[in-house]
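Recap from last week: sequence in, structure out.
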Amino acid sequence: MKAYLKWLIPIIALYVMVGAACLFYREIVREEAYLNELNMISANVQEGLYGADTIIKRAADCNDTAAIALSEYSFSKDKDSIQRLLENLMYEDKVVACIVCDNEGKGIDANGNAVSLTGEAIFDEIRNTYSKGGSGQLLVHDSKVLYSGSIAEVSRVEFADQIKGYLITDVYVNDLYDRIFYRIKYADKMALVSINGEIIAGEDVGTNLWEDSTYDLQVDTIKLNISQGNRYVARIDGYGFVIVVPSKITKGAAVAIYSKEELSRLIRPAMRRYRFFVMLLCAIMFIYILLNFAVFGLSKIIRKIILNSAENKEKIDALTGLYNKIGFDDRLNNYIQSASMRSGVLFSLVIDNPEKVSNETLKTFGSRLSNVFRAADLYSRYSDSQFLVFLKDIKEEKDIRKQTDELQLFLFDMKNEIGKHEPGTVISAGRAIMPRNGTEASKLIEEAVRAMELSRAEGRGSINFGE
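Predicted structure tokens:
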């Protein structure tokens, strides 16, 4: 039983350690998978934004170029030339309206019709933002002239007749939401928002995402990253994750919000790969253990074959299958003579009983003894109830102590087991160390037997040392 425990306990310990390591690294792998997936989603959103930005940017460039040309025209006298310029702007993809107006909001459109933005909220915003010059973009929420939900490209203009006003190119991308989020799946919320959180495209247009208590967003941090043009990926406590990608279109951002459950759907392939790795590792360990058992069993078979070969039969004890006195002396001498620097530990064991020790006990003792140490070591039923064990190449003090402790445990177990059937059984042992107690087989055996006899005389069934 003890021989199997020497294998079983390390195996159990190994599996426990591997299991603990896999559980620990599983959470690390999961967090890494979350991060990788979030970064991939943000990259896809940014790609979608780039496609939409290209349309708006092209319209903005045309608007800026036309604004320069308008400086050559008189606002009051060159209406036809201004109209033709506006008509050219209308050829640009997604442009739905072009207007030139003065500081009061009165002007003409691409069809030459008189228009007026006076009193509209969008015109008040235009004057407040660009009255001192420059160009940029504004969102159109509600207007009778411009398209609601569109983006107004605005340039400040000074005409040749010294009249100042504005050139407004109105761009409406009706599939803006689909362009930005076309590759995104399983998100709980996706929206294009202004820096102040107003939803421009997506569900609940016109509402404020920053004020939605469902998600408990870190609004100040998000706004800071948007203003600095930085992508922002963060955890939402108690909910999941948020991805914020700055947008040049709105001066705001595209936002995608994921619950932890929905994001877990996206990382399933990565977690399946991790589970496959763990299963593969366990399979390799199992195969390794089987191979070790096979080698262990094969070594015993080989040893038995060698011991039972015809040329060694006269050196084998018929009852136990171990070496007899002749065989043990021969093998020990061969070992000592095969090299100059040899070391080892020799144990001499004897079983005493008030009655004669039975053959069954001797056979069991010999069989169990040969499983305590290595298959390459030497085992012998040296005389009737005396056994010798020689452990090869043992020289370090710690190794000697370890092997002595192993034998002590074995003797204790065997004494209890034999004592159940043959009361009064005592097992005594002696130890000799090579080269400390001798460098010849006869001297080494003599010292081990002397130490055993001391133990036998004490009657305690202990191990005495030949030192």
